[in-house]
């Protein structure tokens, strides 16, 4: 099981990501997306699901119409680890087309 990141390590890792922040209430990193419509949101979720399954690491998320809210933590470790930073990096690499 990977170690949780220290506050400093987590802050530094977040600087390398696009729009992710620490959600203290969830003890997770998170990002909220808004898409053109439900189809675009669900297409994004499908792509994330395939990545998650491949990497054995899965998002805690919710979807309301065109909005997708993602929180990433490593349950076994009880906090944020490199696994979460890695999944967030792969999600960013999808270059999701969010609406304004
Ligand atoms: C047994 C299996 O490896 C674990 O349950 C995995 C599955 N996906 C997971 N996803 C996330 N986000 N955190 C975990 O700790 C986790 N654990």
TrEMBL record:
Q: Which Gene3D superfamilies does UniProt cross-reference here? A: Transcriptional coactivator/pterin dehydratase
Q: Which GO terms describe its molecular function?
A: 4-alpha-hydroxytetrahydrobiopterin dehydratase activity
InterPro entries attached here?
Answer: PCD_sf (IPR036428), Pterin_deHydtase (IPR001533)
Protease among keywords = no
What are the UniProt keywords, alphabetically?
Answer: Lyase
Source organism superkingdom: Bacteria
- GO biological process per UniProt: tetrahydrobiopterin biosynthetic process
Q: What does the record list as coiled-coil region(s)?
A: none
The record's EC number reads 4.2.1.96
Q: Which family is annotated?
A: Belongs to the pterin-4-alpha-carbinolamine dehydratase family.
Q: What is this protein called?
A: Putative pterin-4-alpha-carbinolamine dehydratase
**What is the source species?**
Devosia enhydra
């Amino acid at each position: 099981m990977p170690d949780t990141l220290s506050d400093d390590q987590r802050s530094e890792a977040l600087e390398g990501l696009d729009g992710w922040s620490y959600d203290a209430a969830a003890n997770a990193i998170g990002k909220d997306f808004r898409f053109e419509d439900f189809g675009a949101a669900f297409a994004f979720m499908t792509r994330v699901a395939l990545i998650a399954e491949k990497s054995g690491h899965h998002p805690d998320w919710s979807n309301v119409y065109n909005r997708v809210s993602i929180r990433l933590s490593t349950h076994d470790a009880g906090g944020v680890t490199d696994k979460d930073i890695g999944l967030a990096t792969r999600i960013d690499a999808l270059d999701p087309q969010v609406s304004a």
